[in-house]
Write a structure and sequence with these properties.
With 362 residues, the protein is α/β, with parallel strands linked by helices. It has 3 domains: 120 residues, Rossmann fold, CATH 3.40.50.300; 73 residues, Helicase, Ruva Protein, domain 3, CATH 1.10.8; 97 residues, Up-down Bundle (Zinc Finger, Delta Prime, domain 3), CATH 1.20.272.10. It is built from 15 helices and 8 strands. The strands form 2 sheets. It has a 6-stranded mixed β-sheet. Strands 7-8 form a two-stranded parallel ribbon. Strand 3, helix 3 and strand 4 form a beta-alpha-beta unit.
Length: 362
């Protein structure tokens, strides 16, 4: 954890506080659950209690599934009300630890719990504080009851730095012999947006997809497999021997492979859309260009709006022009997220950008 200490903010602890809240940092854009929050508390639990006692001393619940008051009254209360007779932690080399004498209850995604369940949880935290500690993990701290927050110390986790993600990705690529270009690694790190889990999932998906092609499928269906090396992993008949890895020729993962796996707009496509919107006064031509790129690359309008807003924000234009663009695109994204028609909202994107261009010419 020392490598990422600067990425975690700790609020000042209130008086007589024993419990903690892990929450994601207030970053811009959409926010997903930070994988490091759960990993951190589980690693600490194994260090405190040791592998032999962690199952008896730790109760982990996903509050997004077990979110009702019945879970609080039954599972949580039953676990918290029983006192542990052991007083030694298994991870500290047999040394006594005062913390190891407390039970630990981990509530993941606790912001999904109902208000009634949160109020019941507050009472349990007060009643069984002598032998139980709580760790509450949430994506949005404002969705938690103020009564719960006042009884906890907050730890805020920010997304990982690109340099840290790149270091781990390069290590995995070297150890697993993944064939990937340098530009593809840059795209993978950039599109992961601080989420190491997403980077690994995309890398694994791209590596798996590079080991099969249509020629192998054709040879399996219509003819015997050639004895020479061929690109891709051929399909095997039931009971057939596994093809050795030495006979599989894998394709190199490119930037295009990364963008296709994530279904994100490629930079050249966004540049083409932006050049058309900024340089073409014909609205029909702009609509045709955007719709054709969306159709050919299978893009969603929301992704196009996000990428387009990032590129427009880089332009050196007057503040009123930039405000017109960003405010209009934000309103369109809100309507798309609410179920608005992509056909109509695509036209709205053209109108917003062209309005800014006309404002520049005045």
């Amino acid at each position: 954890m020392s490598d990422f200490e600067d990425e975690m903010d700790v609020d000042s602890a209130p008086a007589q506080n024993n419990d903690v809240v892990f929450s994601a940092g207030a970053s811009k854009g959409k926010r997903r659950r930070h994988p490091a929050m759960t990993s951190t508390i589980l690693a600490l639990a194994r260090r405190i209690y040791g592998p032999s006692q962690v199952r008896q001393m730790v109760l982990e619940l996903n509050a997004s599934d077990d979110r009702g008051i019945d879970v609080v009254r039954e599972q949580i209360k039953t676990f918290a009300s029983t006192k542990q007779i052991f007083s030694m932690g298994g991870g500290g080399g047999g040394a006594k630890s005062s913390i190891a004498g407390y039970k630990l209850i981990i509530l993941d995604e606790a912001d999904a719990m109902t208000n009634t369940a949160q109020m019941a949880l507050r009472r349990i935290m007060e009643k069984y504080t002598a032998n139980t500690r709580f760790c509450i993990i949430a994506n949005y701290a404002h969705k938690l009851s103020p009564a719960l927050l006042s009884r906890c110390t907050r730890f805020r986790f920010s997304p990982l730095k690109e340099a840290d993600i790149r270091q781990l990705v390069v290590k995995i690529v070297d150890e697993e012999n993944v064939q990937i270009g340098a530009e593809a690694v840059d795209a993978l790190v950039r599109l992961s947006k601080g989420d190491m889990r997403r980077a690994l999932n995309v890398l694994q998906a791209c590596h798996a997809s590079s080991t099969f092609d249509s020629r192998s499928y054709y040879n399996f269906l219509f003819g015997p497999r050639a004895k020479t090396k061929q690109k891709g992993t051929p399909l095997r008949a039931p009971g057939a021997a596994k093809v050795p890895d030495s006979e599989i020729q894998r394709e190199t993962i490119t930037t295009e492979t990364i963008y296709n796996c994530i279904a994100a707009p490629a930079p050249d496509a966004i540049q083409q859309i932006m050049a058309t919107l900024l340089g073409t006064a014909d609205v029909t031509s702009c609509l045709t260009t955007i719709n054709s790129i969306k159709r050919l690359q299978g893009l969603a309008l929301a992704d196009v709006i996000t990428a387009l807003a990032e590129e427009l924000a880089k332009l050196d234009v007057a503040p009123e022009v930039l405000i017109t663009w960003l405010e209009g695109l934000a309103e369109i994204e809100h309507r798309v997220a609410g179920g608005g028609s992509e056909v109509l909202q695509t036209g709205a994107v053209v109108g917003v950008v062209r309005s800014g261009v006309e404002l520049m010419s005045r």
